[in-house]
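Summary for the steering committee. The consortium agreed at its last meeting that each partner would contribute one worked example illustrating the joint modelling workflow. Our contribution is presented below. We chose a case with several input lines so that the handling of multiple components could be demonstrated. No manual editing was applied between input and output; the record is shown as generated.
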Amino acid sequence: MFCIHCRSEIDPKFKACPYCAEPITDLLRRYHDTPIDGKYTILSCLGVGGMGEGYKVLHVHLTAIRVIQVMLGHKKLETTALYAQVATDLLREVISPLERLPTA
Ligand SMILES: [Zn+2]
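What follows is the complete predicted structure of the assembly.
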């Protein structure tokens, strides 16, 4: 995989990028090549803390920038991913109402 910050080729087993010290989280490892929820590609990490992680993501269908907040505190990544889903649903509620118009 490559570092989302400096784009250097890095070993996914590392906890942080050896070149720029960007944290490499389980979520990053999991969603490095696969979009979150099938539609959010991680662009950059906005912050990693004890309670959660924030990511700037690209909505691959709308080609729009979004921010995803992932709450941590779960040992299993599947549970963490579920929280990412909830966070994106919450995020959707504050998106411009124009985006909610039916497309058909
Ligand atoms: Zn780096």
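The mean pLDDT is 78. The CA atoms of residues 39 and 62 lie 9 Å apart.
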